[in-house]
Amino acid sequence: QVQLVESGGGLVQAGDSLRLSCAASGRTFSMYTMGWFRQAPGKEREFVAAIAWSGAKFYTDSVKGRFTISRDNAKNTVYLQMSSLKAEDTAVYYCALDRRVGGASMQSADYDYWGQGTQVTVST
Length: 124
Fold this sequence. Notes:
Elements: E1 3-7, E2 10-13, E3 18-25, E4 33-39, E5 46-51, E6 57-59, E7 67-72, E8 77-82, E9 91-98, E10 113-114, E11 118-123
Parallel strand pairs: 2-11
Antiparallel strand pairs: 1-3, 3-8, 4-5, 4-9, 5-6, 7-8, 9-10, 9-11
């Protein structure tokens, strides 16, 4: 079984930067799409970013130009570098793995493994 563990969340000020990490255990994920989702209080979980096995990257419009997803396959780790953080970025951030070969989904239902989440709070 795959386990995903997020880290790096915390309380920051608007305009600051933060890097989230997601470490996978149990399996390597080099051939799978990894995604980041977030859920704010009272809101549905929403797609943030994904990186496919090919290296192709995808972002939701609200974070384009501010967030960067990357992966280190040797470490079974995916990262989300966040800059110019805004109050509306406040949410619990989750990483997830899509086990489908060639998957590049922005839909949470297509992901098979999820981490426990890490809280990001942006104050003004």
